[in-house]
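Collaborator request log, item 7. Partner lab (contact: R.S.) asked for a structural prediction of nicotinamidase to inform their binding assays.
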Amino acid sequence: MIDLSHSALILVDIQNDFLPGGALAVPDGDRILEAVNALARRPFRAVIATQDWHLPHHCSFDAQGGPWPAHCVAGANGADFPKTLRSGPITHIIRKGVLQERDSYSGFLDNDRATSTGLDGLLKGLGINHVVICGLALDYCVMATALDAVGCGYQTDVIPEACRGIAADPKATLETLEKQGVRLKSVNAF
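Returned to partner:
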């Protein structure tokens, strides 16, 4: 087993709007919850959840010319964590996409690649040097978060069984992650 005293589990965007029946549902997104809940029971130094947290007329919404339907509106049920997610172990929440004029796929940086969400500072402040990432959607927000984690110098693992993507086949995304230094692990590795 890996010593998790300097490790954080990052739960990316496990929110009602990304689950079946949600405004921007990831196919089979609910199938990750058992694996995610199993990971959250491990003795990580921190369990950090990211939350898409958009204003009602966010730039990413199709009504404003963006690519996505309205989703994860701040304070609405769609932005909440599902009741089936064990939220007790969550020690911190990082909200992203909070500015009207800018989106944020990564848990670390807004899409302008300059504005920090505060996640890097939080991890450094906690003495974290290793992150384990899971969540939704593998080919967007999970990948962006993992690549930024590597870029910030963290040893980075992604747990494919605890992720689902928009694309039916995750192979290309997983290959991209590995080429950039992300390790693919199973839940049982922890």
